[in-house]
Each structure stands twice: as structure tokens, then as C-alpha cells.
Write a structure and sequence with these properties.
With about 110 residues, the chain is mainly alpha-helical. The chain has helices at about 25-60, 65-100. The N and C termini lie far apart (about 65 Å). Mean pLDDT is about 75; it is low at about 5-10.
Length: about 110
């Protein structure tokens, strides 16, 4: 007879269950990276939502942009710029995580 209860593997104390590494900077960077990607996705989604609203308000009159749409266009661009910033920060976190810190400083 089989059980429907999932089996869990014990993880030694002081280890992260997902990465099987000791908690530390690597775990923090991973969490930072996930959060930054989520924020970037959210900002892109908001930009898309604003663009859809602009499209719906134009309703076939895309030759001329209504004056009310200019503020919405700036809002969509600000969301895209915010997403760009989050992705740049993510890249910086990822790049800094790829290199092990050198406690003695740069070598010549």
C-alpha cells in the first residue's frame, strides 16, 4: 500500500534546502536576483497595460495621438525605464556573484 504523503529528505542544519549550500552571500544574491527579475517583469507588465489602454483610447485614430495620451505614454516609458534599471541591477548582482571576492585586493 502506497502513501499519498510526500517524502521529505532531511537537510542538515545550517544548509539551504534548495541549493544545499550553507547560508551566506550566495543565498542572498539568489534572493536578490529573483526579486529584481520579478520587479522587472512587473514593471514591463505595467508598461504593457498602459500601452493597451492607450491603444483602446485611440480606437482606430492612431494617426493622431490624443492630448490625454501623452501623459500615459510618459507613464509607459517610465515603467520601461524602471524595468531597465531593475535588469541592470540584476546584471550587477549576477556579475558580482560570478567572481569570488579577493580579500587581498587586486593583483598587479
Amino acid at each position: 500500500m502506497s502513501s499519498s504523503t510526500p517524502a521529505f529528505q532531511a537537510v542538515p542544519e545550517g544548509h539551504d534546502a534548495d541549493t544545499n549550500t550553507k547560508p551566506g552571500l550566495r543565498v542572498v544574491r539568489r534572493a536578490d536576483g529573483q526579486s529584481l527579475i520579478q520587479l522587472a517583469c512587473y514593471a514591463i507588465w505595467e508598461a504593457s497595460s498602459v500601452a493597451v489602454a492607450i491603444n483602446e483610447s485611440a480606437a482606430g485614430e492612431i494617426d493622431t495621438v490624443p492630448a490625454s495620451a501623452h501623459a500615459e505614454i510618459l507613464e509607459a516609458l517610465a515603467c520601461l525605464k524602471t524595468a531597465e534599471v531593475y535588469l541592470q541591477i540584476f546584471e550587477a548582482v549576477f556579475d558580482s556573484g560570478a567572481q569570488a571576492p579577493n580579500p587581498s585586493g587586486p593583483t598587479r
